[in-house]
Q: What sequence folds into this?
């Protein structure tokens, strides 16, 4: 058994997302903590957050996977972008406290020419500044496709960041199937990829999956998501991923190019795969 859901709009508030997830057949979901392209976040209504937590319990939801805005780059070359990004991360950690016990996923960042050796300590430093012992959120580093100067394409890079994070029990990884495929990990042999993940990072760090097909072939270093079964990864491989024994119990988030109807179909199809 896995939990399955997709990205939802947070514009109607927290409880509305819970109900929207149920309507799509989902039992988890992802949402942007603020406008994915912009900065300022709107105020949280604590009663609405509490209503979602109650709703999730009642409907047996798995953990949510909140997503940081795309504009966040904690290892940017420009100090003002870095500062703004770290402040966003700090603020998001405080905001996540309204929904304790869930995940917060972010892109490690792009080093924009500085090189990963410079970027990796910056990323860990940002997490160290934002994460406090009293927080109830696990921060997830997303595996990246390696387009441009993205950090986090390899398990080794992610491990180097994790090793520098002080609150080690609050840091994990979100595995994006499109990204690792584009990044060069051949998930047609998921046993092998997970073995490598375990050897390098440790499987206990793998907390969530972004479930996407890819518009591009293996190792394309592109990052263009496709609908499940309509891309280069294909349904057969993705089926083996969702039903993999080592991935059971985790939230799977669809980030496929779909409207509600498409998500509903994909969720139903994936549930079907789990039965057979
Ligand atoms: Fe992402
Ligand atoms: Fe993703
Ligand atoms: Zn992507």
A:
């Amino acid at each position: 058994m896995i939990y399955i859901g997709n990205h939802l709009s947070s514009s109607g508030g927290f409880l509305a997302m819970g109900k929207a997830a149920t309507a799509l057949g989902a039992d988890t979901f992802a949402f942007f903590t603020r406008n994915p392209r912009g900065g300022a976040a709107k105020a949280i209504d604590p009663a609405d957050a509490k209503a979602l937590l109650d709703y999730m319990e009642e409907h047996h939801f798995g953990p949510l996977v909140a997503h940081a805005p795309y504009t966040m780059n904690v290892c940017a070359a420009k100090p003002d972008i870095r500062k703004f990004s770290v402040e966003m991360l700090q603020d998001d950690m405080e905001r996540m406290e309204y929904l304790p016990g869930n995940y917060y996923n972010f892109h490690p960042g792009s080093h924009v020419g500085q090189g990963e050796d410079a970027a990796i300590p910056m990323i860990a430093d940002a997490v160290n500044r934002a994460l406090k012992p009293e927080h109830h959120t696990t921060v997830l580093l997303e595996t990246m496709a390696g387009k441009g100067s993205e950090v986090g394409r390899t398990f080794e890079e992610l491990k180097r960041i994790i090793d520098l994070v002080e609150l080690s029990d609050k840091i994990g990884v979100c595995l994006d199937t499109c990204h690792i495929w584009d990044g060069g990990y051949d998930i047609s042999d998921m046993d092998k990829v997970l073995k490598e993940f375990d050897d390098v990072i440790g499987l206990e760090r793998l907390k969530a999956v972004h479930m996407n097909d890819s518009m591009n072939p293996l190792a394309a270093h592109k990052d263009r998501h496709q609908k499940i079964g309509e891309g280069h990864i294909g349904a057969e491989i993705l089926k083996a991923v969702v039903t993999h024994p080592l991935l059971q119990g985790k939230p799977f988030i669809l980030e496929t190019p779909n409207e509600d109807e498409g998500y509903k179909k994909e969720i139903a199809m994936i549930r079907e795969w789990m039965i057979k």
The mean pLDDT is 97. The longest strand covers residues 171-176. Residues 108 and 227 are 25 Å apart (CA to CA). The pocket of zinc ion (ligand 3) is lined by residues 176, 178-179, 223, 225 (CB under 6 Å).
